[in-house]
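Q: Give me the 3D complex with beta-D-glucopyranose.
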Amino acid sequence: MSNQTTTAPEEVTTDLTAIPAERKAGLLSGQNFWETEPIPELGIPAIVLADGTYGLRHQSGSHDHLAMYDSDPATCFPPGAAIGSSWDPEVAARLGSALGREARAQGVDIVLGPGINIKRSPLCGRNFEYYSEDPHLTGILGSAFTRALQAEGPGVSVKHFAANNQETNRQSISSDVDERTLREIYLPAFERVITEAQPATVMASYNRINGVFASENRWLLTDLLRGEWGYKGAVVSDWNAVTNRVASLRAGLDLEMPGGNASHDADLRAALASGDIDEADLDASLARVAALADYLPTASVAVDYDAHHALARDLAADCAVLLRNEHQVLPLEGDLSLAVIGEFAESLRYQGGGSAHVNATRTDQPLESIRSLAEEREVPVAYARGFAINGEDNALLLQEALTTAAQSDVAIIFAGLDERAESEGFDRQNIDLPVNQVELIRAVAAVAPRTVVVLSNGGVVSLEGWHDDVDAILEGFLLGQGGGSAIADLLFGRANPSGRLAEGIPLRLQDHPSSLNFPGERGHVRYGEGIMVGYRYFTTFETPVRYPFGHGLSYTTFTSSTPAVHVNAEGDTAVTVDVTNTGQRAGKHVVQAYVATDAGPVRRPLRELRGFDKVHLEPGETKRVIINVPRRSFAYWDVQYGQWVVAPGDYSIQICADANTVLTETRFSLDGDIVSSELTLETPLGEWIDHPIVGERVLNDLGFASAEISPEHLAMIRSMTMQQFVHISGLPIPEEVLTGLMTASKSD
Ligand code: BGC
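A: Here is the predicted complex, encoded as structure tokens.
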């Protein structure tokens, strides 16, 4: 394993005048799969890029981006689905720092992560790599990861920008999504990472957005990213995403990766010669690519891979989610005999496939770790393979498992999805566990006194058909190379589960809001559910789920006080909650703060996560938690005004156990923003009456007081435009009255 780093050249300059214009075109794409072109004129060597959303995939040998060739050994930390479930920016930061150190030690300057796309559908093959269905949770974790990684020296590439929420036809599909939904759901995590953590690069995704490739989308890459968000770093393409190099440069895409597409470089030169682009366009991008030299090493770094393995194990214990724990079967205590069942216990599924795949330095297996903890406690452990991972029925394996389970006090079944079931590059067809595993779980539960199921899967799996048969379910998602021992620690109570679901588990796939429009057809996927993604839909439309977003149990219990809400003059809010550990064990609790309102002229989800904090509490201990909820958290994106608007009205801060369960809440009202649009004769009468400036005068000025109109009549006429109303009502409304109101409506 290499601990070598190259150090930065003495003198890096940014004077581009020494470089001929034609040569500049060639410097805006890589020199090979993982490196930029060196720029000797500026004293800049090749910048090395490598994948890394939860562990480094640095290929010093053969190159590819689907992990078909091995990469250099590195620590496989818990993948995004697990990190999302930690609900802990500290976990994301510790992972980021360690990954940054490994990158530095292996000579990598830019790490291609974090992956912060929203889990729009549970079927997305890359959900194992992404954090959550919620933009706030995703953004907080992505920002913590980025700041920590970059503090070690290398830069990151936050990806995949944007609206890349499926693998089916990912290189061509158009994500057809309205602006409010983009602004409120699919962009905020990027906005947070970009404005809070200044990532070295942003990776433009493969897909189209409303028909325009992300890599050629000037609104996305320039107007929004640089104009509105003030981004100064470089935009890099996803690997082979660029179809039209000239259009992508014009849109603001600086660096095409990988290199080797001579025709694209030639296209840029031709566009330069024809005047379609000018040298200043090339200079702007080249300056941003050259600025990546800031991420070159200044000193060499050595990594303690044993310490990183221990870290991977610690982090994993903070990520697993205890979904169910009847009869307090967990933690395993006292005089017990155990039957461990399922091949995953011997070879745990701990990470995903595709470009994120890490060549782990080593792996802990649950069976071995359980045996060693059981030995300390003199607890006998029997093992049975139980089922064939390839899904084939195997009566012998089943029978052996049943015999073993029947002779033990507690059966612990390791179930889940194997690597063929989910990966980058394709989406799942369903959320079911393989039938042979469901049969095994039911049969074992019928003979074992107590049954615990430990799940390993990247995207959520259905628990239907067997949930009620078992006593406990520990959902690990994919826990990285330390996952096996972390699971044993959790089962025996050496660690207390503190993960919370970062995506809800539906009862049925068809209940999920994305179902009607996933994965799209004829080259388009319509984001028809709009902002009602995940729990926003389930809660608003009272659709039952098996476990809601935010759910997760502990071996101890907590209470939260009613939130004290303090709104300052700027409209930013501080929410103060006292949390107490009322149980017998130390543990971590996630305080979840949601905003609920129906203020404003647009449909709001029942509640939205706007703040959270994870705190460690000893038994009996109380801690005060202060969660800042900035003004923007109360706003919706108003498509008419093209801005964030806080609607005047009533709001509530709800402290919840999960998205479905309000523990305690505080209501208050906000003056909000007075925004007004200019009235015209085409504006519906209802909008005239509700207008924040002239609304109160409208009915009077039109010649009758509101008392004269019955509510039914008012309801009938609200949808008529003023023109239609004047015409149909036959009222002698003077033109100057209308003109006066319209003129007054302009001032704001
Ligand atoms: C993936 C990216 C990855 C790149 C390089 C692409 O296929 O979408 O996430 O960084 O390959 O491996």
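A quick observation: DSSP finds 21 helices and 27 strands in the chain.
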